[in-house]
Design brief:
Blueprint: H1 2-12, H2 27-40, E1 46-50, H3 62-71, E2 75-79, E3 98-102, E4 114-118, H4 151-156
Parallel strand pairs: 1-2, 2-3
Antiparallel strand pairs: 3-4
Helix pairs in contact: 2-3
């Protein structure tokens, strides 16, 4: 997901701001950090957030940050690779319109299995993948074209 942000810089000329969560992290200093980030950078339109850090195990208050961002007209994309299957939550709990999930980490699925959640009313805001013609424009599957997938990997997902 970090690579995607860097791609946006190269492809669309956006400014990418990297930020570090204050340590030691507390609920309040994380909230204060994002409050200041949004206040000091009024041109921000998108925040990439990590639900649980693979470096420290920190679980961010995603719903609160997502609500705060929305009040500033800022979208959030949540990387839930390390939280799905590790902690109990629903995608709705995150209050983010976009969430990426990786199933090989805590679920135990084969490499390459994952999914992207796009809130239904936000689907029109995401371009179809290379003008996908396999699925209708209102079908989330038109947003990512995986080509010929490794069927064995996907068949293993229900078992894991």
């Amino acid at each position: 997901m970090q690579y995607a942000m860097k791609w946006l810089k190269d492809r669309r000329g956006v400014d990418v701001i990297a930020t570090a969560i204050p340590e030691p992290a507390t609920y309040q200093n994380v909230i204060d950090h994002y409050t200041k980030l949004l206040r000091d950078n009024p041109r921000i339109t998108l925040l990439l957030l990590t639900h649980i850090s693979h470096r420290t195990g920190l679980k961010l208050p995603i719903a609160e940050i997502s609500r705060m961002a929305a009040q500033h007209g800022v979208d959030t994309v949540v990387d839930a690779a390390h939280s799905w299957g590790h902690v109990d939550f629903s995608v709705r709990d995150l209050e983010s319109p976009f969430v990426g999930f990786n199933l090989h980490k805590w679920i135990g699925a084969p490499l390459g299995c994952g999914f992207l959640y796009i809130k239904k009313d936000r689907l029109p805001d995401i371009d179809r993948h290379f003008a996908d013609e396999d699925h209708d424009a209102d079908d989330v599957r038109s947003r990512i074209h995986t080509g010929t997938a490794n069927s064995a990997n996907y068949l293993a997902v229900p078992a894991v």
